[in-house]
Design goal:
Mean pLDDT: 97
CATH architecture of the largest domain: 3-Layer(aba) Sandwich
Structural class: alpha/beta
CATH class of the largest domain: Alpha Beta
Bound molecules: adenosine-5'-diphosphate, alpha-D-glucopyranose
Low-confidence stretches: none
Helix content: 25-40%
Number of strands: 18
Number of helices: 20
């Protein structure tokens, strides 16, 4: 089976979040299931550098106002358009975080080229099916529906909060027939909705954890799309993300100070010293909590700001790596200035430091208000960095709470808390500090987490089964 994946990020080429990790891991995971996956990516500068010398298999003299070419490399198709994708700044916006004004054209171009590839071209690729990731790819389902391609599509929602919404006045730019602009099409609350269109036209919809698949059918989580998601509930599947267990392996990781395993946990101490040094933390008895995250409201980072004085008063320390909301960045830096030696903050994005924190901190905090899947808690589990997480989405599906029964049975892997507010966050931090003081129980929790299996095998088999059933349904 041949599948064209379409996405706007792919680790290790371009990444702003977990989407990239998943898109990067799926080709190898699905190969083991007999699926050949080729991924279509926008030709951002980093992607073009990685495929330098790749040959052009198709030319588009005028793709949304400028010439473009389709480049083919190993496992990749790259949409090269200097006008659309080569610029200084982020993938979706400029250096100040303001969305690029032509995001509609940029990702409509990606989606329309995906639909074009789906018509089958000997030189490019002939997919049996297309697998679209998030709003940046979602419109391909509409281009396929109203175009000549006759292949089914699957849309995976990585985060319902990002929807690709634009002004209705821009609809004519898409080159879709007028009939596509209706409540049963790309129209969404009077505007244009890329994700909405994909949810309407894809043959099947998946999201990245079973709990999130349930949650998004509720108005409290559905972000205006719960009605449509309920209508399509029969085609909505929750498939938990896996992690790349080669890249995230504490026994072989070259980015950390000392390698270790569940049976050799003592070696982990050197990594803790390294975190203390890197984040200028005073040595101490209490746990080091870490954060590796986008600093946003979704991730509950504003709540964490409010709990930091309490965290220090309990004897905890914090090492935080992240960037995002400017106000939250400022508040984190202010807390570090108030508590030198107890709170260390690095604003920015750093792959190596993210590994070092998982390897050396005692616990990783993920107090998200919503979390479709979440990967950092799974990296934490694999590295003996005990997750302290909100009971939502994929966090609820991957961590076993250290209640008394679970601790007694030796199956607990982390701490979960309900009702994400400052008070419940303080309570779970205290629970973590207390549990950490009981070294035997803590070690048992680390070992249970390290032995859990989050490799892609099972989930890849579920994607492959879904591909097959969607193809069979088309006959
Ligand atoms: P999301 O995709 O919502 O941001 P995930 O937990 O699914 O959340 O994925 C986040 C990914 O980005 C993980 O691989 C995490 O390690 C990485 N990450 C987030 N922030 C940083 C950072 N500041 N530096 C390095 N890696 C980061
Ligand atoms: C999104 C979600 C995150 C998920 C990731 C990969 O960025 O916010 O929860 O883990 O996609 O699916």
């Amino acid at each position: 089976m041949r599948v064209l994946a379409v996405a706007s990020e792919m680790h290790p080429l371009v990444k702003t979040g977990g989407l990239a990790d998943v898109v990067g891991a799926l080709p190898a995971a699905l190969k083991a299931q007999g699926v050949e996956l080729v991924t279509l990516l926008p030709g951002y500068p980093a992607v073009l550098r990685a495929v330098a010398g790749a040959k052009a298999v198709k030319r588009y003299p005028d793709l949304f106002g400028a010439p473009a070419r389709l480049l083919k490399a190993e496992g990749l198709l790259v949409l090269e358009s200097h006008a659309l994708f080569v610029r200084d700044g982020g993938l979706y916006g400029d250096a100040t975080g303001t969305d690029w004004p032509d995001n509609l054209q940029r990702f409509a171009a990606l989606a329309s080229v995906a639909a074009d590839i789906a018509t089958g071209d000997r030189k490019a690729f002939r997919p049996d099916l297309v697998h679209l990731h998030d709003w940046q790819a979602a419109l391909a389902a509409a281009y396929i529906r109203f175009g000549p391609a006759d292949v089914p599509s699957i849309l995976t929602i990585h985060n319902l909060a990002f929807q690709g919404r634009f002004d209705a006045a821009q609809f004519p730019l898409l080159g879709l027939p007028q009939e596509a602009f209706g409540i049963d099409g790309v129209e969404y609350y009077g505007g244009v909705g890329f994700l909405k269109a994909g949810l309407r036209f894809a043959d099947a919809i998946t999201t990245v954890s079973p709990t999130y698949a349930q949650e998004i059918r509720d108005p409290a989580f559905g972000m205006g799309l719960d009605g449509l998601l309920n209508e399509r509930a029969g085609q909505l599947h929750g498939i938990l993300n896996g992690i790349d267990t080669d890249e995230w392996n504490p026994a072989t990781d070259r980015l950390i100070a000392a390698r270790f395993s569940a049976g050799k946990l003592a070696a982990r101490a050197r990594n803790k010293r390294a975190v203390e040094q890197l984040f200028a933390l005073q040595p101490g008895e209490g746990p080091i909590f870490c954060v590796v995250s986008r600093l946003t409201w979704q991730k509950g980072m504003d709540l964490l700001v409010d709990a930091l004085d309490a965290l220090v008063a309990m004897g905890g320390r914090l090492a935080l790596l992240g960037s995002g909301d400017r106000a939250i960045e400022g508040a984190m830096l202010a807390a570090a200035a108030r508590h030198p030696g107890r709170i260390g903050v690095r604003i920015g994005y750093d792959e190596a430091v993210s590994h070092q924190l998982q390897a050396g901190a005692d616990a990783i905090l993920v107090p998200s208000r919503t979390e479709p899947c979440g990967l950092t808690q799974m990296y934490g589990l694999r590295y003996g960095c005990v997750p302290v997480v909100a009971r939502t989405g994929g966090l609820a599906d991957t961590v076993i709470d250290a209640n008394e029964a679970a601790v007694a049975a030796g199956v607990a892997t982390g701490l979960l808390f309900d009702l994400v507010n400052a008070q419940s966050l303080r309570a779970v931090l205290q629970r973590a500090v207390d549990l950490h003081a009981d070294a035997d129980s803590w070690r048992a929790m680390q070992r249970a987490g390290m032995r859990a299996d989050f490799s892609w095998g099972r989930s890849a088999a579920r994607y492959a089964a879904l591909y097959r059933s969607v193809l069979a349904a088309r006959g």
